[in-house]
């Protein structure tokens, strides 16, 4: 029995050692926690954490929402002004991770290696974003807590925003009030 308990404890410790960095996204609609996958998307995770650690995601917007598809944010302040970016990161979409519901991925332009600070969370399975023969969109983590917050976000009406010259902009602002790295061992509630 003692041997079995030691084996179980060892497996639990090994599982927690394999867990990637965790980040908390506090929004005006509730809190999400994401776990990042450093082993599959090291450049994307390092890039995302750079913005987390410098505090520049704080008081930014989820500026794009397409129910049943994605909610996208991190690139604009609450006045819909673009936020400064670091250099783009290489595309890591061929990393074996897929754009499944609840995963977090890098937004980019038509240039596969153009991702900077904007990210999105998949609201459904979006396998077409994986790319196939072309470069897709890099998945670098997954939501581990706060699925109900994503469901609430998906209910927010959207429309055209003339300042952004964009459709699918939430009519009620969805604000990323605070984004912070969690200490190792902080668990999803």
Automatic annotation (TrEMBL):
Transmembrane segments: none
Single GO BP term: protein folding
SUPFAM superfamilies: Cyclophilin-like
UniProt keyword annotations, A-Z: Isomerase, Rotamase, Signal
Keyword Protein biosynthesis: no
Catalytic reaction equation(s): [protein]-peptidylproline (omega=180) = [protein]-peptidylproline (omega=0)
Domain of life: Bacteria
Full protein name: Peptidyl-prolyl cis-trans isomerase
Species annotation: Oceanisphaera psychrotolerans
